[in-house]
């Protein structure tokens, strides 16, 4: 998603021409915010601007840029309702979006949205999804009434049931909004959890106009990635930067078996796998084998800080070109790909077998005889 331009929070903004190219978010808040009166505008998870709620009202003006969706977070929510995720205001064109918060205790994202068809539709979608989640939770609690709740069996069954109902829900919504930006936006937002066949079917429902939007193009990139990530396919060469900001081409590893490890600084299972990966690296490293770590972190500082902590002995790159999606269709981390010396994909593995029982590790034992 394109970066937001600087937010304009102006007391006396009078230019009607400029106003026609803005998203204006007007909020009313009823209730005590306990002194936590700020509303933040976020860009890639980082707070870029803020405005204060005064006398129960606030106004934010943001230059409208195609395919850019403002993301808000209330100070009240972060202080009194943690964890409190930021929420997008899906306005697909210049205009005014109204947010009416009648109960701050429920969070600002619960406020009633009006004034923008896409923003209203997004909130309705999310409310339906949450209703679905609560219904599944109630059903699961009955199933596990006399069993331990929230253990692995509960979580696996809950997730399976959630996916079973959520995917058709997304598909129905996209079909009903195939000629509207919100249809493409929802598909783009939830694409990582949608199976490939369903994702292709949902994408095909979008109108030609909506297929030219950024969310739809992101979906198309993932669909291309699925095709490129099949065993036997040549890896499309790419160049990413090292921690020292040096460009490194994947083709420079030709002649070796390469284990590409997609990971991130916020991924617990990724970090849990590193001790055993270090043992694996010590066992196989040399002229015929290399591990290449590729982080999908959005924040370079988070990546560099984690590298400092982990002290990983194999090369590391930061995915600033969305290679993980458009060439490998990665949906979760850690995900590994074993690549042949000729640059062809041998196999893919989601997760890492810490006990030496992963499919890639079995293949390495077969290849190197140890």
UniProtKB/TrEMBL annotation:
It comes from the Bacteria. InterPro entries: AhpC/TSA, Thioredoxin-like_sf, Thioredoxin_CS, Thioredoxin_domain, Thioredoxin_ResA/DsbE_sf. The keyword Hydrolase does not apply. It is found in: Cell envelope. Its main location: other. CDD domains: TlpA_like_family. Residues 1-19 form the signal peptide. The keyword Disulfide bond applies. Keywords: Cytochrome c-type biogenesis, Disulfide bond, Redox-active center, Signal. Residues 229-369 form the Thioredoxin domain. PANTHER family: THIOL:DISULFIDE INTERCHANGE PROTEIN DSBE. This is TlpA disulfide reductase family protein. It comes from Chitinophaga caseinilytica.
């Amino acid at each position: 998603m394109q970066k937001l331009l600087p937010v304009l929070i102006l007391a006396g903004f009078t230019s009607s021409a400029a106003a026609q190219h803005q998203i204006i978010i007007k909020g009313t808040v009823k209730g005590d915010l306990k002194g936590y009166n700020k509303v933040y505008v976020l860009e890639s998870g980082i707070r870029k601007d803020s405005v204060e709620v005064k006398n129960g009202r606030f106004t934010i003006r943001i230059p409208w840029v195609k395919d850019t969706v403002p993301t808000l977070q209330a100070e009240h929510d972060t202080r009194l309702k943690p964890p409190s995720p930021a929420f997008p205001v899906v306005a697909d064109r210049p205009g005014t979006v109204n947010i009416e918060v009648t109960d701050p205790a429920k969070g600002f994202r619960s406020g009633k949205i009006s004034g923008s068809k896409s923003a209203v539709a997004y909130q309705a979608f999310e409310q339906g999804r949450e209703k679905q989640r609560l219904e599944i939770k109630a059903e699961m609690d009955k199933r596990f009434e006399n069993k331990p709740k929230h253990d692995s069996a509960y979580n696996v069954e809950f997730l399976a049931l959630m996916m079973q109902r959520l995917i058709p829900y997304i598909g129905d919504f996209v079909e009903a909004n195939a000629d509207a930006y919100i249809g493409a936006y929802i598909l783009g937002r939830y694409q990582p959890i949608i199976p490939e066949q369903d994702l292709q079917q949902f994408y095909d429902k979008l109108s030609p106009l909506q297929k030219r939007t950024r969310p739809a193009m992101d979906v198309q990139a993932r669909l291309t990635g699925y095709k490129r990530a099949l065993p036997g396919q040549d890896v499309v060469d790419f160049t990413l930067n090292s921690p020292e900001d040096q460009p490194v081409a994947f083709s420079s590893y030709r002649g070796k078996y390469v284990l590409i490890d997609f990971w991130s600084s916020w991924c617990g299972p990724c970090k849990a796998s590193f001790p055993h990966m270090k043992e694996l690296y010590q066992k196989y490293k040399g002229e015929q084998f290399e591990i290449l770590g590729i982080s999908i972190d959005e924040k370079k500082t988070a990546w560099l800080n984690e590298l400092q902590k982990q002290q990983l002995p194999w090369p590391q790159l930061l995915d600033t070109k969305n290679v993980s999606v458009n060439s490998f269709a990665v949906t979760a981390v850690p995900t590994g790909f074993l690549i042949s010396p000729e640059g062809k994909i041998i196999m893919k593995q989601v997760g890492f077998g810490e006990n030496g029982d992963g499919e890639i590790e079995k293949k390495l034992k077969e290849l190197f005889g140890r």
